[in-house]
Design a protein that fits this description.
5 strands; 150 residues; Glycoprotein, Type 4 Pilin; single chain; 22% strand; five-stranded antiparallel sheet
Length: 150
Amino acid sequence: MNRRIQSHISAGFTLIELMIVVVIVAILASIALPSYQSYIIRTKLVEGQTALGEARIKMEQYYQDNRNYGSGSCGSVGPLALPTSKYFTIACTLPSAQEFTLTATSNAGQGMGAAGDYTYTVNQQAAKRTTEFKGVTVSKNCWLYRGDEC
C-alpha cells in the first residue's frame, strides 16, 4: 500500500494546480505591465524637459552677450540651434526682444501616444508650464511627471 501512495504523490502537478499558477502569473502581469509602461513614459518625458533646459541656457547665454533674445525665430538667433530630441519637437517663439517661450511637444509613434499628448513650456523667467498631459489639456505651473504631481 505504501508503494501505491508514493507513486500517486510523485505523479506531478494536476491541471488545477497549473491553472492556479497561470492565473496568479496573469494577475501579477496585469498589475506590473501598466506600471512598467508608465515608468518608461516618465523616462521619455525627462528628455523633453532636459532639451527645454538646454535651450533655455542657450537663450540666456545669447542674452548675456547681446542684451536681448533677438527677433524673428529662435533658430536664427545668433549661434542658437534648438536641441534635437527623439521623443519631442522643440519650438521657440520670441514675442519681443526681451521675451521668449520654448515649447516641447511629444512626437507620434514613440511609445508615448499621439503627437502632442505631452506639451511643456518654459520662458525667460524660468516659469515652467504643462499644457498637455496624457492627451488631456491641463494648466499646471510646473512640469508634470505623473498624474497631478510635479
